[in-house]
Write a structure and sequence with these properties.
Radius of gyration: 26 Å
Shape: elongated
Distance between the termini: 26 Å
Strand order of the largest sheet: 1-2
Number of domains: 3
Strand content: under 5%
Helix content: 55-70%
Number of strands: 2
Structural class: mainly alpha
Largest sheet: 2 strands, antiparallel
Number of helices: 19
């Protein structure tokens, strides 16, 4: 819906509600703390009320926000979906400012959508993170704090009003991330985290244990993929994220952990990793970095092995089929569907990895033929898999 259409529809609805309730423009203006001229402009479609006034208008006339904005549920959800799809496209291009502008427009049009509100909170968190990386001036700190405060406000509003369990859990997870990683408030993050469901009571666990027959069988196989991914991320974080493991593990132990994470893939997926090819590429990249960090010639050769395997996995990731059955004996009743794979959208895996290959970390390998051949394969693959913006 175009902005002018929105203005006209809201204005006409306010005029209709006012006349049905024998309310004058002066009476409505007095209740809202605005001028009668402002109400007149709304009704004429010149402009529309701000987000703070809309709930007050709806409450005044005892109607829902959706009714005030002339939305049926089906049309509202269709419009929300359109906004979210465009937001995802822009996020994949890392165009955060444009995403924020889009979501502000969306929320001005559909302020009652909790899905838009949580998306806005998550993007504000990403925006604050991007701002913080630009420096540590008073102006930047103030802008970061403002973005985070707004994100928290959206989350608090969802938790106070929304009854959808999935959205509430997503909101709590977002709040935990903000408090723990951006506001340095681990106590509040922990308090919110403890409100989430225990893994033992998750729908995946319960369905696999209470059901029987094919439904339970397929759920158990799906769980193996879900749990393997969670285990892999924990292994990866232990080996690669200092904020989690600090200096607990030696370089050799980190290599052993990542090697076990690769073995986990092979156990579950055998020769059909599909979306796990993304994880494999990450694991081999980190293994190469760890091998290089020793400075030994023998470890340099191991790093080259990992670079080649990283390239293999990245290319396999970009060349995943639209749909294909898993062949592993453990999950062979399941089918991979690229349309459901969030990692299959936006910039190709090869392109993402190539962005980091200019780092000084790789200086000692740049003239090596094996390294150059691996990079050349990734460049060729990235060029043959242009992102959405290039198509």
């Amino acid at each position: 819906m175009k902005n002018q259409d929105v203005k006209l529809k809201i204005g006409a609805k306010i005029r209709l509600l006012r006349r049905q309730n024998d309310v004058t423009q002066d009476m409505l203006a007095d209740h809202l703390g605005v001028t009668p001229q402002a109400v007149s402009r709304w009704e004429s479609g010149i402009c529309y009320p701000d987000m703070n006034s809309l709930p007050l208008i709806a409450d005044y006339f005892s109607v829902t926000m959706d009714e005030l904005l002339c939305y049926t549920n089906a049309r509202k959800e269709q419009k929300v979906e359109t906004y979210l799809e465009e937001a995802e496209r822009l996020l994949n291009r890392e165009r955060l400012t444009e995403v924020l502008e889009l979501l502000r427009t969306a929320l001005a049009e559909i302020p009652s959508s909790y899905r838009l509100q949580i998306e806005m909170a998550e993007v504000l968190s990403l925006y604050a993170e991007a701002l913080a990386e630009k420096g540590d001036t008073p102006q930047i700190r103030e802008a970061v704090r403002a973005a985070l405060d707004e994100a928290v406000s959206f989350c608090r509003h969802i938790l106070s009003d929304c009854t959808d369990d999935d959205l509430r859990d997503r909101t709590k997870k977002t709040l935990c991330d903000i408090y723990a990683h951006q506001l340095d408030n681990n106590a509040e993050a922990l308090r919110i985290a403890e409100q989430l469901h225990s893994m033992s009571y998750s729908q995946e666990i319960v369905k696999a244990t209470i059901l029987t027959g094919d439904i339970a069988f397929v759920q158990a196989q799906k769980n193996l993929i879900l749990f393997a991914d969670n285990i892999w991320w924990h292994l990866y974080n232990l080996a690669c994220v200092p904020a989690i493991s600090g200096e607990t593990y030696s370089r050799e132990e980190k290599i052993a952990i990542l090697t076990k994470s690769v073995a986990l893939f092979e156990l579950i997926f055998e020769d059909t990793p599909y979306f796990y090819a993304d994880r494999l590429a990450n694991a081999y990249r980190q293994l190469a970095i760890l091998h290089l960090s020793s400075g030994k010639a023998s470890d340099k050769a191991l790093a080259l092995d990992c670079i080649e395997k990283m390239a293999d996995a990245a290319v396999a990731c970009d060349e995943r089929p639209e749909k294909a059955a898993y062949t592993s004996v453990i999950i062979h009743h399941l089918t991979y569907d690229k349309s459901e794979d969030t990692e299959a959208k936006g910039m190709s895996k090869c392109a993402r990895l190539l962005h980091g290959m200019s780092s000084p970390i790789w200086a000692s390998l740049r003239t090596n033929d094996r390294f150059r051949a691996a990079i050349a394969r990734m460049i060729q693959c990235a060029e043959s898999h242009p992102d959405e913006e290039d198509t």
